[in-house]
Prior knowledge:
Layout: E1 5-9, H1 14-25, E2 29-34, H2 38-46, E3 53-57, H3 63-72, E4 80-83, H4 98-126, E5 129-134, H5 147-166, E6 173-179, H6 187-190, H7 197-200, H8 207-220, E7 224-226, H9 229-238, H10 243-254
Parallel strand pairs: 1-2, 1-4, 2-3, 4-5, 5-6, 6-7
Amino acid sequence: xxxxxxxxxxxxxxxxxxxxxxxxxDGYDLLIVADENLIQSAAQDLRQFGxxxxxxxxxxxxxxxxxxxxxxxxxxxxxxxxxxxxxxxxHGFLDQAVEDWRKVIDTNITGTLYLLQKxxxxxxxxxxxxxxxxxxIAGYIPGAFQAxxxxxxxxxxxxxxxxxxxxxxxxxxxxxxLKPGPVDTEFFARGDMLDTSVGQSESKSDPVDVAKDGxxxxxxxxxxxxSGWKTKLQGALANVTPASVLAEQHRKMAEPGSGKE
Length: 261
């Protein structure tokens, strides 16, 4: 058993798996979680780096799922939390089933906040710990045809800024927000967005690179990082571009069928 311990959520594939890989390479024992059985295969892959890896299949859109994850930690001190689990959803809001958009909100916001509150309290009590929260450049853009997802990421991006300020006197507890743009993961298939322009784009970021950016910023205790120069530029432009223009730009990327034009 290593003397340092990390939890990574949404770790079966994509950014979460790559973050878990970096943690294992740095000698952290791992507790990884996702809402699919593939998390067990991910754990097997991660054990090659020689640390202890425990996998939990749990639905982090529910408080019970978060409690199951924390119970699996067995009271062990959590040195790092990578709160990466998230869910996307394409199509127009009026065409989305209530249970689908609720799942996005409950995963991206409710479950994430509950987990953060549970993990941060003991970190603050001992004034030690690092948290990486996966936000998104989407949180800066009114997301036509991704309205619930983008709004959920806006909440996360700004919530992270707020609690970072609240906890600024706990100098050895750091909260870092990772803000990628479109990443080449299962996100677009799971969100039913493969027929969109952004879903079919070949310019999406590599999750390996995004995870490296996030892990480096986490280790340095940085407040936030836009992953990739295009994303940094988007973030800068979003602050000076009218919301109506941003929404129309997003529509061209995310409207169903836009990838066939």
